[in-house]
Model the fold of this input.
Amino acid sequence: MSKTPDTLTPEECQRLLAKLLWPNIGCESNYLILRNYSMTVLMLETGVRVGELVQLQIHDLYIAGEPCHSLCVRPDIAKLHRQRIIPLTKIARGAIDLLAHHWYSPEPADWAFRRSGYKNASKHITTRQVERIITDAALLSINRRISPHTLRHTFATRLMRITNARIVQELLGHKRLTSTQIYTHPNAQDLRMAIDSVDSLTVPSHPTPT
Done:
């Protein structure tokens, strides 16, 4: 039996993103704050794998002075070496726009999410660094440990509620539909919603004690 994927509730997503955008850490530069926030938004809004995320280049996200309307996951960075196109939401495009002016300061850099420091400007962030950033922010904001894959699970689970498994399979870049079908399993939020809906049923009122 497949294990139900670990996902975030909408409230947990908001708390996680708020912590990244306002970390309350004086040593964090504006670039690092916007980088960490933008890449987290992108994972939540596209389901892109962390290994694909770190290899994204500026032109994958930003062309002619504005955010792209779709993210093209290039074959050379895709896990199965198959290109896929993921339409970008307004939220994702807004996060990209926040970071965009940092891509050309102090000098042009090909990588969308580069490492911190002048000497590292030509290198992209590593998957291990992304994992640490997400884990640390989650422990501080929602008091539990998650990984970047949790963000991918959250995207897929949310999408499965409004569309079919074939579309989710295409957007996630799964080779087999069976890999996508784990998102048809109800999670804790689905179970809570099901029970809460019982409140709307007409039931006899409790007798009043005499």
Summary: The chain has one domain: 10-172.
